[in-house]
Design brief:
Pfam families: DDE_Tnp_1_7. This is PiggyBac transposable element-derived protein domain-containing protein. InterPro entries: PGBD. The chain is an alpha/beta fold and 137 residues long. It has a domain of 95 residues. 23% of the residues lie in helices and 26% in strands. Strands 1, 2, 3, 4, 5 and 6 form a 6-stranded mixed β-sheet that branches. The longest helix is centred in the first third of the chain and has 14 residues.
Length: 137
């Protein structure tokens, strides 16, 4: 599966360059069949399917994505000192280094650890909604 995802990511990036304003969020892909990575997503209109982390521009074009493998493990679930959400942000931010992009994320990605790790990348602005209880980190 990894070679297919890598080929798609390369094709997406070569067909359409990333826009100045980028957003990282989760997306649900409806699927009724059987799969070990299928998840129940109660907050989505079609609740059964695949959870995918995406980085998209303001036009809605997806520049980078990562399929969540849920509790079964896999490469996308290897946790580091910045946590799962931080790892997702770091992986999806690749390619934006030193290019003056603005990156938005919702309150799932509230930790400051990815922001600190990206300081040397010169992603100029990083905006996120933040719960008062989640400001540490």
């Amino acid at each position: 599966m990894r070679p297919v995802i890598d080929a798609l990511t390369k094709a997406f990036c070569s067909a359409f360059g990333p826009e100045e304003y980028q957003s990282i969020d989760e997306m649900g892909i409806p699927f009724k069949g059987r799969s070990s990575i299928k998840q129940h997503l109660p907050s989505k209109p079609k609740s059964g399917g695949f959870k995918v982390w995406v980085r998209a521009g303001v036009s809605g074009y997806i520049c980078r994505f990562q399929v969540s493998q849920g509790a079964t493990g896999g490469r996308s679930n290897v946790s580091s000192e910045i946590g799962m959400a931080g790892d997702v942000v770091i992986r999806l931010s690749k390619g934006l280094e030193r290019k003056n992009y603005k990156l938005y994320a919702d309150n799932l990605f509230t930790s400051m650890a990815p922001v600190r790790k990206q300081r040397g990348w010169n992603i100029v602005c990083r905006y996120m909604t933040c719960k008062p209880s989640a400001r540490s980190g």
